[in-house]
Write a structure and sequence with these properties.
374 residues, alpha/beta, Rossmann fold, five-stranded parallel beta sheet, 17 helices, 7% strand
Length: 374
């Protein structure tokens, strides 16, 4: 029974709601150690010099083209700062936004304000709603904890495909270590697994996915090694203090906060504040706060206080619940059945986990090559 005892990290706020968590003799969790290891291996010691070299390469590759890079934009903080940083470094980015039908009005306004202020062109890829709704409902019925896989997969596919079409080799990403390094594997499964997506949709879907942006592992290999497209985590090359950044966006562009990470999407806000904690006992704020604790942007005491409150107000949660159920065309009974269905994992479906798990060093190498860290 000892292994079932509750324990929380002595340094951050990750706990045994992550089934795979491990603690050292001081009570510090594996996620804290992983964070500091990534800082040592992925943040260049001479990052200012490395950034200047990187920008020079991007400009050289983009000569004679209308744009020299792409920047993914969601309306959230990280992508907005990535766009600002790219522009400040003299790049000519094309902003790409994927509209999956769940943008909050505030998110649309934030995207418009930031891009207008930076004088950056915007390309919006709108997903076919009936197809995507069917896919999202399929994932909800699958009882997997990561029902955001359809969105995450489509975003990456859209960015690669647009970069390929425009012959652009660099994609500026807002992904970063100091605010996003911690996320338990037991909570979230790899969004690159197209085989899993297809199997879940085959079991629970109703429509064919004719236009959904997707990619296989061989296709990812093709984009990285033959088209030589690189993701650039530009925020890893600069000092990124989230609170200061939010203040800057507010002052310079009139950007307004959503209240929590990824809440620019109504669906994500509802999924993270209602479905995940009530059905799966997962509070993603623990991972978000723990990363900020490790990067010394939040105290452990502050994080513990925040976790005492609900992710959203009861009124907001109820409004979102009614809106999401209606938009997904689910009945109250169908949603009730989804919430009460037994929890499952990727092991209950066909997936590429065998290949991803059998050759971790190769997959790691491919991803490293696909992310510019020179």
């Amino acid at each position: 029974m000892l292994e079932n005892r509750y324990q929380i990290c002595s340094n951050c706020v990750m706990d045994t709601t992550d089934r795979a968590i491990e603690f050292d003799e001081s009570g510090v969790c594996c996620h804290c150690h992983h964070y500091h290891n990534r800082i040592k291996t992925e943040i260049p010691f001479d990052r200012k010099e490395k950034l200047e070299q990187l920008i020079k390469r991007i400009k050289q590759q983009g000569r004679g083209k209308e744009y020299d890079c792409i920047v993914g934009i969601s309306g959230g903080v990280d992508s907005a700062v990535a766009a600002c940083t790219a522009k400040q470094m003299g790049l000519r980015p094309l902003a790409v936004h994927m509209d999956n039908g769940w943008n909050a009005e505030l998110a649309v306004a934030n995207v418009e304000r930031v891009l207008k202020g930076l004088d950056i062109d915007l390309h919006t890829h709108v997903l076919d709603w009936e197809e995507f709704r069917d896919l999202q409902c399929s994932f909800l019925r699958s009882s997997l904890a990561n029902a955001e896989i359809p969105t995450d997969h489509a975003i990456l596919a859209s960015l690669y495909k647009i970069a390929t079409r425009l012959k652009i080799r660099y994609i500026i990403s807002g992904s970063n270590i100091v605010t996003e390094a911690i996320m338990p594997g037991s909570w979230m499964y790899d969004a690159t697994d197209l085989k899993l997506i297809k199997d879940i949709h085959r079991k629970f879907g109703q429509f064919k996915l004719k236009t959904y942006p997707s990619y296989s592992l061989p296709k990812l290999f093709y984009w990285i090694f033959f088209k030589r497209i690189r993701f650039v985590p530009i925020l890893n090359y600069v000092s990124y203090i989230k609170k200061d950044t939010v203040d800057m966006l507010h002052q310079e562009f009139g950007w307004r906060s959503y209240g929590a990470k990824h809440y620019e999407s109504i669906y994500t806000r509802f999924f993270q504040s209602y479905i995940l904690p009530r059905k799966f006992n997962i509070d993603k704020r623990k991972a978000h706060f723990s990363t900020l604790i490790c990067s010394e942007q939040m105290s452990r005491e502050e994080a513990l206080r925040e976790l005492q409150s609900e992710p959203c107000s009861p009124q907001q949660i109820e409004e979102d619940r009614e809106f999401v159920i209606k938009k997904l065309q689910l009945s109250e009974q169908e949603f009730k059945d989804i919430m009460e269905a037994p929890i499952k994992t990727f092991k209950d479906y066909s997936s590429n986990h065998f290949w991803l798990n059998s050759f971790p060093s190769i997959i790691k190498f491919i991803k490293k090559i696909g992310t510019d860290r020179k």
